[in-house]
C-alpha cells in the first residue's frame, strides 16, 4: 500500500488528481487525497472525467508495477452531494456506483450521527447474544460474564465515535437487566437491585457492569485527550484546519457555524467537563497560558489570585513569558500595569512561593496529564435487597411478616442475618472461635464495613474475611429451606454446615495449608 500512496502523492503534485481541501485561503490549507487501512483504500477525487481517467491509469500502472490485481468490480464510486452523470464516471472506472450513507470499516459513513437507525445492527446482535433461552443454562455469575463480554465486544466501536441516543441506551440496559434477573422462559422475576448500583465498582458493592451513558462519554472524551497529544496525526490536522485551535492547541476553537459536520462539535462540548480532570506539565512553556491553564497548584492562577489577575499586563501571556531558565535554575518574573499596593504584597509573595515550589522541566514540549486522584477508603455495602417479608411487602406482595428462623419477630434483612436468636447463636460461635468480644451493630452494612476495617486484623485473615459472607449465605439458605420446602435444621447442624462451607470456600479461594476439615479446625482452634 506504500507504493500506491507514493503514486497518489506524485499524481497530486502533478495536478493529475485533486482531493478535498480543508481550511481557508486566508490561512494555511490541508489537502487530503486518500486514506489507507490494511487492504481498504479510500480515494478522494474531483468530479471531472479527466481526473477519473487519470485515476484509472494510475491503478493500471500500479497493477503492472506490483503484479497485484485491483478488483474494480468490487469497488464503488460514491458521490458526495449532487453529482450529475455519475453512471458515466463509474463506467470509466468500470466499477459500481453507490450513495451515502454506507458502511466503511464497520462504521456508517455519511450517516447522521444522532440517528437511532445506525444502532439497529448493534441492538440486533445484542438481542441474539443475550437471548432469553440462554438464561436457563447459566448461573447469575455466567449471565454477568456474558453481559460484560457482550458490552465489551459489540458496541464499543460505535460508542467510541457516536453519542448514544437516550432511547438506545435504555433499550440496551433493559436487555442486560432482563437477562441478569430473568427467570426461565418468560417467567417474571424481581429486579432486586437498582441498575445504577449494579454499575458501581465491586469494591463499592456493585457488579462492575459499565454504565452505557458514562462509558460513551468517557470514550468520546478520549478524542479530546488525543487531540492534545497527537499533534501530527492526520485526523487532528483536519479538525484543526476546519475549526481552528485555542491558544496552545489543546482544544479546538468554539464553533457557532450552523453548517458542516457537527460530530466534532458535539465531542468538543465535553471540554469543560473533561478539563476538570487534567493538568499540564511545563516544558518550555510556549503552549500554556500562565493565568488560564492548570499547571501550577490545584487551581488556575486566575481564580486563586483575582486581585493580581486584574492588574496583569498581559492576561493571556504564556508561561514562557514569565519564566527564565539559567544554568538549570528557573527564575520567575511578574509584570503588572502599575506598581503593587501594600494590600497586594501578600498575594505576590504567595504567588512567588507557589511558582518556586513548582517543578518545571524548562525544556522540551509541554504535556497534558491526568489529575492525580486520591482513594478515599474502602467501602463494602450491604444493600438489604434480599426478598425478606418486609421487602416483599414494599413490592405490593401481601403476606404475613414473621421470621422463619425464630418464628417470633418480623422478618427484615438485619433481623434474619444478624439479630435473630437463631442467627445469634451462630455468630456467637464465630466470635468464640477468634476470641472476640463484640456488640453486634444494628445494620448489615455496618458489620461488613467494620469486618473489613481495623476490626478485621487477625492472624488467619483469609478465613476471617470469608466468615460474614459464608454465614449469611448459610442463614439465608436455611431460611429459604424452611419457607419453601418445610425442612428445618437445628442450631448444631447449621453450625456444622457453616464450618464445612467455610472450609470449602477458603480452600477454593486461596493457597491454604490444610487439606482436611479436621486440620482446618485444629489450625483455627475452633471452640464449637
TrEMBL record:
Top-level lineage group: Eukaryota
Domain Reverse transcriptase zinc-binding: 378-427
Protein name as catalogued: Reverse transcriptase zinc-binding domain-containing protein
Organism annotation: Fagus sylvatica (Beechnut)
Amino acid at each position: 500500500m506504500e507504493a500506491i500512496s507514493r503514486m497518489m502523492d506524485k499524481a497530486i503534485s502533478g495536478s493529475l488528481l485533486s482531493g478535498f481541501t480543508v481550511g481557508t485561503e486566508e490561512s494555511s490549507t490541508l489537502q487530503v487525497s486518500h486514506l489507507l487501512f490494511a487492504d481498504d483504500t479510500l480515494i478522494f477525487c474531483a468530479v471531472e472525467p479527466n481526473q477519473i481517467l487519470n485515476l484509472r491509469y494510475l491503478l493500471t500502472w500500479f497493477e503492472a508495477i506490483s503484479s497485484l490485481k485491483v478488483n474494480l468490480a468490487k469497488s464503488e464510486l460514491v458521490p458526495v452531494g449532487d453529482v450529475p452523470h455519475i453512471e458515466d464516471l463509474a463506467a470509466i472506472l468500470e466499477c459500481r456506483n453507490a450513495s451515502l450513507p454506507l458502511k466503511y470499516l464497520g462504521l456508517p459513513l455519511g450517516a447522521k450521527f444522532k440517528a437511532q437507525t445506525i444502532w439497529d445492527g448493534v441492538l440486533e446482535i445484542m438481542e441474539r447474544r443475550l437471548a432469553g433461552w440462554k438464561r436457563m443454562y447459566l448461573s447469575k455469575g455466567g449471565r454477568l460474564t456474558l453481559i460484560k463480554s457482550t458490552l465489551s465486544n459489540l458496541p464499543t466501536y460505535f460508542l467510541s465515535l457516536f453519542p448514544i441516543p437516550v432511547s438506545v441506551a435504555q433499550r440496551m440496559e433493559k436487555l442486560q437487566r432482563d437477562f441478569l434477573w430473568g427467570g426461565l422462559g418468560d417467567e417474571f422475576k424481581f429486579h432486586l437491585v437498582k441498575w445504577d448500583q449494579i454499575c458501581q465498582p465491586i469494591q463499592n458493592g456493585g457488579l462492575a457492569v459499565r454504565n452505557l451513558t458514562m462509558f460513551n462519554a468517557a470514550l468520546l472524551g478520549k478524542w479530546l485527550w488525543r487531540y492534545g497529544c497527537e499533534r501530527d496525526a492526520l485526523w487532528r490536522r483536519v479538525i484543526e484546519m476546519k475549526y481552528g485551535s485555542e491558544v496552545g492547541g489543546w482544544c479546538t476553537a468554539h464553533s457557532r457555524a450552523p453548517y458542516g459536520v457537527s460530530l466534532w462539535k458535539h465531542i468538543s462540548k465535553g471540554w469543560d467537563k473533561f478539563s476538570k480532570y487534567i493538568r499540564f506539565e511545563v516544558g518550555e512553556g510556549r503552549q500554556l497560558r500562565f493565568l488560564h491553564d492548570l499547571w501550577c497548584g490545584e487551581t488556575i492562577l486566575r481564580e486563586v489570585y483575582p486581585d493580581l489577575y486584574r492588574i496583569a499586563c498581559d492576561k493571556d501571556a504564556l508561561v514562557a513569558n514569565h519564566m527564565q531558565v539559567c544554568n538549570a535554575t528557573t527564575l520567575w518574573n511578574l509584570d503588572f500595569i502599575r506598581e503593587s499596593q501594600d494590600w497586594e504584597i501578600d498575594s505576590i509573595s504567595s504567588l512567588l512561593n507557589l511558582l518556586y515550589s513548582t517543578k518545571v522541566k524548562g525544556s522540551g514540549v509541554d504535556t497534558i496529564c491526568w489529575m492525580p486522584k486520591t482513594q478515599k477508603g474502602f467501602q463494602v455495602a450491604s444493600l438489604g435487597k434480599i426478598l425478606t417479608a418486609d421487602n416483599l411487602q414494599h413490592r405490593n406482595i401481601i403476606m404475613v411478616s414473621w421470621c422463619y428462623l425464630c418464628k417470633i419477630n418480623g422478618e427484615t434483612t438485619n433481623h434474619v442475618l444478624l439479630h435473630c436468636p437463631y442467627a445469634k447463636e451462630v455468630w456467637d460461635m464465630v466470635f468464640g472461635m477468634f476470641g472476640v468480644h463484640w456488640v453486634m451493630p444494628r445494620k448489615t452494612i455496618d458489620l461488613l464495613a467494620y469486618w473489613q476495617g481495623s476490626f478485621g486484623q487477625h492472624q488467619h485473615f483469609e478465613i476471617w474475611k470469608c466468615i460474614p459472607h459464608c454465614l449469611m449465605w448459610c442463614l439465608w439458605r436455611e431460611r429459604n429451606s424452611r419457607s419453601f420446602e418445610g425442612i428445618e435444621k437445628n442450631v448444631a447442624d447449621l453450625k456444622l454446615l457453616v464450618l464445612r462451607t467455610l472450609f470449602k470456600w477458603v480452600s477454593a479461594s486461596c493457597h491454604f495449608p490444610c487439606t482436611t476439615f479436621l486440620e482446618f479446625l485444629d489450625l483455627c482452634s475452633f471452640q464449637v
